[in-house]
From TrEMBL:
Domain of life (superkingdom): Bacteria
High-level lineage: Bacteria, Pseudomonadati, Pseudomonadota, Alphaproteobacteria, Hyphomicrobiales
Record-linked InterPro entries: Ubiq_cyt_c_chap, Ubiqinol_cyt_c_chaperone_CPB3, Ubq_cyt-c_CBP3-rel
Full protein name: Ubiquinol-cytochrome C chaperone
Pfam families membership: Ubiq_cyt_C_chap (PF03981)
Ubiquinol-cytochrome c chaperone domain segment(s): 36-172
Family note: Belongs to the CBP3 family. Belongs to the UPF0174 family.
Length: 185
């Protein structure tokens, strides 16, 4: 057991997971989301953006096997560990964390289903509506949801053009949230 814990493979996997997760977090924290597209700069708003970016990579890797499947699982595990850690930082006690984690997991998987359906159908209005429902549920109208949907489609394209081997080596590039301009990070 101890041999596998300290093996070179586990250290390499940890480094890859850390590198990819750092890219996911950096993409989710792009200032344009909060300054131009009116995503709430709150814990829930940041959760929405982190969830969206985690979903986008999971969606890219969904039909892959082997190392890519392992990378995808390691990242989803890291995501939920990060959410758990964040809840504890907010002062949620040990007794309350599991209940909140279940709720956040349901939120994450519910969103991924609606986002995947819209992306797979290339339905920008449906994606914008799903984003509005999830990111700004209190807003009667959120015109920036169309711009965020455009960003999502640009990111899907950017991720599709990245080699799986590169992603599995810890290299990942999301599109830039540059208020609708057409350049990639």
């Amino acid at each position: 057991m101890f041999k596998s814990l300290f093996s070179g493979k586990n250290r390499a996997n940890r480094a890859i997971t850390d590198a990819l997760y750092a890219e996911i977090v950096a993409a989710a924290r792009q200032p344009a989301f909060y300054s131009h597209w009116q995503v709430p700069d709150s814990p829930l708003g940041r959760f929405e953006m982190l969830s969206l970016h985690m979903f986008l990579l999971q969606h890219r890797l969904r039909d892959e096997n082997g190392a890519a499947r392992e990378v995808a699982q390691n990242l989803i595990d890291e995501f939920f560990l990060d959410v758990d850690h964040s809840l504890r930082e907010f002062g949620i006690g040990d007794a309350g964390v599991p209940k909140r984690m279940k709720k956040l997991a349901r939120m994450f998987y519910g969103r991924t289903a609606s986002y995947a359906d819209a992306i797979d159908a290339s339905d920008a209005p449906a994606l914008a509506a799903a984003l509005a429902r999830n990111v700004r549920p209190e807003a009667k109208d959120w015109p920036e949801s169309a711009e965020l949907a455009d960003y999502v489609f640009r990111t899907v394209h950017a991720l599709a053009n990245q080699r799986t081997d590169d992603i599995c080596s810890g290299r990942l590039n999301y599109a830039e949230a540059n208020a609708g301009q057409e350049s990639d990070a």
